[in-house]
Amino acid sequence: MCCGICVDACAHAAQRCAGFLLYGVLHYLPDYNGLCRDPMARVVLKGVSKVFDNGYEAVANASFTVEDGELAVLVGPSGCGKSTMLRMLAGLERVTAGEISIGERLVNEVTPKNRDIAMVFQNYALYPHMTVFDNMAFGLKLRKYPKKEIESRVEQAAEVLGIKGILSRKPKQLSGGQQQRVAVGRAIVRKPQVFLFDEPLSNLDAKLRMQMRTEITKLHRRLQATMIYVTHDQVEAMTMGDKIVVMNDGQVQQIDTPLNLYNSPANVFVAGFIGSPSMNLIAGTCSGQDDARFESSALSVALPRNKLPDHAMELDIFLGFRPEHLYIRESADAPPHAITLATLKITLVEPLGHETVIYGNVEGTTIIARSKIPVPPAPGDILHLLVDPSRLHYFDANSGAAIGR
Amino acid sequence: MRRILLWSLLLCALLFYVLPIYVMVANGLKSADTVSLSTMWKLPVTVGLGGFGEAWRMLSPNLLNSFAMVIPAAVISSIIGALNGYVFSKWRFRGSEVLFALLLFGFFIPYQAILLPLVRFLQWIGLYGTLPGLVLTHIVYGISVTTLLFRNFYVAIPRAIVEAATVDGAGMLQAFWRIMLPLSLPAFAVTLIFQFTNIWNDFLFGITVVPNPQAQPVTIALNNLSGSFSVDWNVVMAGAVLAALPTAMVYLGLGRLFVRGLIAGAVKA
Amino acid sequence: MIGRTLGPRKQGLLLLLPSLVLTGIFVYGFVGTSFFFSLTNWRTLAVDLSLREPLWQTYADMLRMPRFQADLRNTFVFTVLFIGFSIGLGLTLAILLDRAIRGRGFFRSVFLFPYALSFIVTGVVWRWIFNPETGINLFFEILGINRVLTTVGIGPLAPGWTTDPSVVLSVNQALAAVIPGGNTFQVEWGVPVALIPVAIAATWQLSGFVMAMYLGGLSGIGQAVRDAARIDGASEFRLYRSIIIPMLWPITIATAIILLHVSLKIFDLVFAMSGVGPGFATDVPAIFVFEMMFKAARYNLGAAASMVMLVLSCLIIVPYLIRLVRKGE
User: Fold this and answer.
1) SS3 letters for chain A?
2) What angle, 0 to 180 degrees and rounded to 10, lies between the N-to-C axes of helices C104-112 and C195-219?
3) Can chain A be said to touch chain B, i.e. do they have 3 or more Cβ pairs within 8 angstroms?
4) Counting one residue from B and one from C, how many pairs have CB atoms under 8 Å apart?
5) SS3 content of chain C, % helix, strand, coil (to 5)
6) Which of A23, A321, B254, C82 is the most exposed place for a label (fewest CB within 10 A)?
């Protein structure tokens, strides 16, 4: 009983210290560079597919490149094939077709052990019967490193991660955040060419997740290592990735920087997936000669002709606009060139303090808006919405692809 | 290379497990004049059911005794176990864990330590040497393990279900009868199989509580058959098959439940 | 008005009452009675419940009996052999089947099959397999081993198996050197050769159970840990040696306790397979108790031996039950 309390208290203290230590250590620890590695590690996928024995195609013809030292995030809803992709990179799944190379070496037939990669798993996958030290040292021991070298590497990693005080504990005695750090430590002691992260934060609570997110980003900046990070959380993807690979249904949807994904989504899926709340997407058609109009069952919007791509005319399209690019006519924050979008009846209001999320209804179509209006409106109120026309997106309703950009 | 090693090891193991079964069946099917010590491993030249017929003639009364013993004993001990398991899992009170442990103790003791008083007691109440006496014995010493199995099963059912029934106005017994019992069918299947196998395969109680050969269960009769010099060897082997058949059928037919009971009774025990 | 009803505790107790009463009588009452019998002068058919003078004389007599000493030795040796064989074989089989291969379910069913049989059936069959006149020994002829050995001049192999009275690896001299008075043992402390076939038969029956336990444990080890080890660079062999087998340790302990419990009580198998054996080479306490109580009518002696069995069993059960109570509260 007494023991339990002590362990708990220690765990808490260690956790609080860890955050503090990390910030300090990352910036000032001089021999930190001992954990960096030398060789270049560019990861290239060419036409990679995976078809399972039961005929299910998890990944179809995926190609992308992760440059040396880059942090690439694979993001998509569950079942989109991102984890399978990572497991193929790790060598845990065989590639059905295509080529994977790591650091200019074709690794299709190379075993996980010889790929010079390390992986951090979703459930940490720590060895429950080994101490934290042994967990981190296992991979080095198998590679027959001298004892001294192993000790110094583990110590160093533990210092970086703020887990020096728990090296002799077993995983069961650690908090979720500490287990997470050990899992990361197990990867960094190996100094691999490439780090693979498989949804490593999904088992942590919201606060800790945010903290670990920044820690991993900092770790990446310091180690200058190539990292590939899988997540289903678009916020994680946007905040961490140098480059983001959006996947859905086994297909790569778009490969781009976070800002480009946000500003110019390549298709309806990416448009809806990135951003929260999601982009409003309204089905309709564009028509007209000098002054174009967008017409749908609910909306009729006069569009400035020069903002509209030519080939969007006379097509079935989706008109897209993000909630944060809508303005309430009565409030003063709208840009001068904003145009009238719709008049809607408010159905639900979510005041968040710094802003308000408003759900409204026009002729059965729901529109979501975000506003910084100081006094939020009430459900039932009528609202006139403006939109910034340069922030409008157009998608071909048949193919889903973006038009114009 | 690896495959070859794996498969040769598995086939060796298969041989070890199958050989005794082969000896039993193959020699049971031989006729009295062709069965001999020097041809033990050979397949029967002519398949005859003579051995089985003879074994059946000698063992059928005892097989019936076994059934008459095992069915009521397994059913009654399971029902009592269900009730106990219910109380121990869903109506815990101060000291109930201690009572449970005291009850469970009965499953683990070597029964030699109660044999003599048991026999005296059964003589005293007039059930010594009878099947009902044997059934009573198996029920009493089965309670602890059936309670364990049911308790482990019920622990996995959320307590909120019973609480909801209580809020709806059901009493302790009503909640058991209306809510828990309908959920317990898998547990009953597992427990009945477990008890059926255990009780059918019992030897110690059979030989000590029932000295009269006519009333003995089949395990004791088989042992007598095997020890007797006047019985042909093929008959003994056929008898072994007959005595093994009921539990073997249960195993082959309901293997999944059998394994579940095994693990439930063992891992948590 | 609220009617007077029993509280849940009383209701619960009421439901448990029949079982508690029966257990009170049939377990605790009878164990107490047996213990009492072991202290009395009751050693003939005529009941004599007067206490013995001195009180523990029956136990003292028993411990001096060569037969009982042999029984204790046999229990120890049998336990070691049986648990060693069963865990070794069961773990091996579980590891072999811990992969996607054709016929996995078939192998599992066959290996576990003997567990469904009675020890008597097992004993009856294995008794013939280890009969010196037939069974295994025929293979030495069939495979031509004996012909080869005879030409070499060693002579045919014909082990006596359960009829072999010899005791190998005797440690009596070592005991005499270490323990003062260690040379007063009336039996040879070592491995009775005749016990080995019995342990093999018991292994045949229970190793499938051990395999099932391990397979259950293996299915609880996530794929992620295996993947992590492979990425760390562990070979298949290393994965099992350094990760999986250590992770199965709790299963090993649980299984060993269950097997220990079986081996301390073993009765039917020995009874059907070899009986007391030559020079009590395969005699066990359970048979000793049975014969004293139901054949020799030496009731106090049988009761005393059963108390020794009980104490041995309690050494394993009681810690387990105490842990159970602690965990529950």
Assistant:
1) CHHHHHHHHHHHHHHHHHHHHHHHHHHHCHHHHHHCCCCCCCEEEEEEEEECCCCCEEEEEEEEEECCCCEEEEECCCCCCHHHHHHHHHCCCCCCEEEEEECCEECCCCCHHHCCEEEECCCCCCCCCCCHHHHHHHHHHHCCCCHHHHHHHHHHHHHHHCCHHHCCCCHHHCCHHHHHHHHHHHHHCCCCCEEEEECCCCCCCHHHHHHHHHHHHHHHHHHCCEEEEEECCHHHHHHHCCEEEEEECCEEEEEECHHHHHHCCCEHHHHHHCCCCCCEEEEEEEECCCCEEEECCCCEEEECHHHCCHHHCCCEEEEEECHHHEEECCCCCCCCCCEEEEEEEEEEEEECCCCEEEEEEECCEEEEEEECCCCCCCCCCEEEEEECHHHCEEEECCCCEECCC
2) 140
3) no
4) 256
5) 70, 0, 25
6) A23
Q: Is B113's CB within 8 Å of C34's CB?
A: yes
- Judged on CB neighbours under 10 Å (0-12, 13-18, 19+), A271 is buried
Spatial distance between the Cα atoms of B222 and B63, rounded to a whole number of angstroms = 10
Exposure string (b/e) for C261-272, b if CB count within 10 Å is 16 or more?
Answer: bbbbbbbbbbbb
The reported pTM is: 0.85
CA atoms within 13 A on the CB side of C51: 7
Q: Does C312 touch chain A (CB under 8 A)?
A: no
The phi, psi pair for C292, rounded to 5°, reads -65, -40
Chain B residues within 8 A of C264 when measuring between CB atoms: 110
Query: C320 and B267 in contact (C-beta within 8 Å)?
Result: no
CA atoms within 13 A on the CB side of A327: 17
Which CATH architecture describes the domain C70-328?
A: Orthogonal Bundle (1.10)
Q: Which two tokens stand for residue C303?
A: 């009761």
Question: For residues C142 and B50, what is the distance between their CA atoms, to the nearest angstrom?
Answer: 28
* CA–CA distance, A397 with A402 (Å, rounded to integer): 9
Closest Cα partner for A204 from A183, A178, A177, A185? A177
User: Which chain C residue has the Cα nearest residue B266?
Assistant: C258
HSE-CB for C186 with a 13 A CA cutoff:
13
Residues A191-243: tens digit of each pLDDT: 999 999 999 998 888 888 888 899 999 999 988 899 999 999 999 999 999 99
Mean pLDDT of C88-92: 97
- Residue type for B195, please? Q
For C95-141, the pLDDT digits (tens) are 999 988 888 989 999 999 999 999 999 999 999 899 888 888 888 88
Cα angle A25, A31, A35; round to 5: 90
Among C225, C232, C251, pick the best mutation site for testing chain A contact (most A Cβ within 10 A): C232
Task: Return the axis-axis angle of helices C299-328 and B96-108, rounded to nearest 10°.
Answer: 140
Q: Does the structure show a pLDDT above 50 at B142?
A: yes
CB A358 within 8 A of CB A324: no
How far apart (Å, rounded) are the C-alpha atoms in residues A333 and C64? 103
Query: Are the CB atoms for B108 and C284 separated by under 8 Å?
Result: no
* Residue owning tokens 């394994």: B259
Substitution target in C11, C120, C211 with the highest count of B β-carbons within 10 Å is C120
Say how far apart CA C29 and CA B78 lie, in whole Å: 23
Where do the domains of chain A lie, and which CATH numbers do they carry?
36-263 (3.40.50.300), 277-396 (2.40.50.140)
Residue B41 has pLDDT above 70, yes or no: yes
Query: Which ipTM did the prediction report?
Result: 0.91
Spell out the domain ranges in chain B. 21-267
Say whether residue C261 is in contact with chain B using an 8 A CB cutoff.
yes
Helix axes C66-96, C57-64, angle to 10 degrees: 70
Residue B143 backbone dihedrals phi, psi, to 5 degrees: -55, -45
